[in-house]
Amino acid sequence: MASSKNFTEVLIGGKVFTLSGFESEDYLQKVSSYLNHKIEECSNSEGYRKQNAETRSILLALNIADDYFKARKQGGTLETDIETKDKEMYDLKHELISAQIKLENAEKTMDKLKEENKELQMRIVKLETQLKG
Amino acid sequence: MASSKNFTEVLIGGKVFTLSGFESEDYLQKVSSYLNHKIEECSNSEGYRKQNAETRSILLALNIADDYFKARKQGGTLETDIETKDKEMYDLKHELISAQIKLENAEKTMDKLKEENKELQMRIVKLETQLKG
Q1: Residue among A113, A125, A132 with most chain B CBs within 10 A, to mutate
Q2: Distances B71 to A24, A31, A54, A108, B67 between C-alpha atoms, Å
Q3: How many structural domains does chain B have?
Q4: What pLDDT digit, counting tens, does each position of B59-92 carry?
Q5: Where is B19: in which H helix or E strand?
Q6: Chain centre distance of CA B65
Q7: CA of B24 to nearest chain A CA: how many angstroms apart?
Q8: Alpha helices (runs of H) in chain B, residue ranges in sequence order
Q9: Do A61 and B57 touch (CB under 8 A)?
Q10: Coiled-coil regions in this chain (chains A, B) (predicted)?
Q11: Does any domain span residue A118?
Q12: Hey, how many other C-beta atoms are within 10 angstroms of the C-beta on B53?
């Protein structure tokens, strides 16, 4: 996040910081807004307020890191969901191909039976004509 | 993360902190280890080192928040993947049901044609017998 290119002014904990980086201003404002929300959240706890600045800084960092790990865990759950869906989809495709092959064979058999049927009917007409004659 | 139940000692930035919470010791050690890694990563940059403690604290928090937003974005991408797969799966199920119905109808038609053929063959045998008689 610390590089060149863009310079964005953000307000964090009531102080202005100039951030430089490749990230868009929108993104940096979003991250700063989240950070302000976390600072406020922490400040609501007496256990946080009574600590010195250094400990507060670590507690804030731990709190954000906790969000990060929870987001990663959520990502992991989604990855497991994707794996399950991929397996299900593989089975469905397999089942579909198998049904399509069976259908193709059934249609061939049907055509053959229709043809046979036609020939048998012609044979009957012929035999009936012979009987009449 | 700050509640009662467990008390875990962690080492962050060379200092011991006692964290209390419902999270497991394993989890808190993992988060602390990540935090130490982030502190080390930031400290490698001169731009970070030359700042005062307060600014360093904000920069560290921003850096972790950046990881959090990237993990969330990754989660969002996975959610989009899941939506696409769900749609694909819905279409596949629909196609499979349609193929199965067609197959069922083809099998019924096949049985009917076989039955008809049998009857026609019997009629032929009868007619041939009549012709011979």
Answers
A1: A113
A2: 17, 13, 27, 54, 6
A3: 1
A4: 999 999 999 999 999 999 999 999 999 999 999 9
A5: strand B15-21
A6: 24
A7: 12
A8: 25-43, 46-49, 53-132
A9: yes
A10: 89-130
A11: no
A12: 10
